[in-house]
Amino acid sequence: MANQLPAFITPNDLREHWQGHRRLTRRTIEAFPTDKLFAFSVGGMRPFGELAREMIGMAVPTIEGLISDTWSAYAEAPATTRESLLQAWDDTTAAIDERWASIPVAHFQDTVTAFGQWTMPAHALVLYLVDNEVHHRGQGYVYLRALGIEPPPFYART
Amino acid sequence: MANQLPAFITPNDLREHWQGHRRLTRRTIEAFPTDKLFAFSVGGMRPFGELAREMIGMAVPTIEGLISDTWSAYAEAPATTRESLLQAWDDTTAAIDERWASIPVAHFQDTVTAFGQWTMPAHALVLYLVDNEVHHRGQGYVYLRALGIEPPPFYART
């Protein structure tokens, strides 16, 4: 399966890197009081529960698109409670692990048009998912601090 | 220089991905009023200027460490004005581009102990720099919103 390009990181290590971030994001969801998760924000931004629904809504449809080149309509995960959000989160965790290896290795270097509108290399599309999650989770950290709650340590990914 | 591992992304594309983030972070620095950059925050967190100094302080010493396996003591960039911060930012941009290719490709798969204390694969160390920047920039976005200022679009990396 090796290709002829130099590797900064392999597909499998990138999946594991992402799942490490996802474990931290899960702990960030858990850190919110249940009555704040979908209600509290700063500066008129979206609450953290909504941001997490967006992360879930993007993840598996992007992987499916990379496998099949069929792009479903983007739909936010419908969870409205912390419990259902965490369940949707865990379902996504399992689905990423199950389907990731079905993306052909060479395809990460191909340019794709995701969801009919975003054209970029497949590796940039996957990194967009990770970066979007890190970006919004950083915002969640500010919400937690504004609530007087210590966020989970940024470096803890296990 | 090709190695035998499958590539999710090449070292050069990862450098370009990081520089895209760094262009966005530079615009985020510029978006702060000069009297808020080192003074304003939410929830008792560090102001964005301090966070940007941390990003600068980590970037080149990490690359130098990966090239030479000599780890300098971490030092935050000394900038205290927006102008000097942007100058330090641009100096770092040039230094990353100049030195990146001196990291041997195979070294990204080696486990390193950075700054005498953080042991991880070199690719994870580099991604930590990128992720730390995205994380703190997301916090900067909340500060800007709390100030009534529209942050730069997240997807704009040119």
Describe the structure.
Two copies of one chain form a homodimer. The first copy, chain A, has a two-stranded antiparallel ribbon. Chain A has about 160 residues and is mainly alpha-helical. The first copy, chain A, is globular. In chain A, helix 1 packs antiparallel against helix 3 (about 80-100) and helix 1 runs parallel beside helix 4 (about 120-145). The first copy, chain A, has helices spanning about 10-30, 50-70, 80-100, 120-145; strands at about 110-115, 120. Chain A contains four helices and two strands, in the order αααββα. The two termini of chain A are about 30 Å apart. Chains A and B meet through helix 1 and helix 4 of A and helix 1 and helix 4 of B.
Question: Which secondary structure elements does this structure contain, and how are they paired or packed?
Answer:
The structure is a homodimer of 158-residue chains.
Chain A: H1 11-31, H2 48-68, H3 82-99, E1 111-114, E2 118-121, H4 122-146
Antiparallel strand pairs in A: 1-2
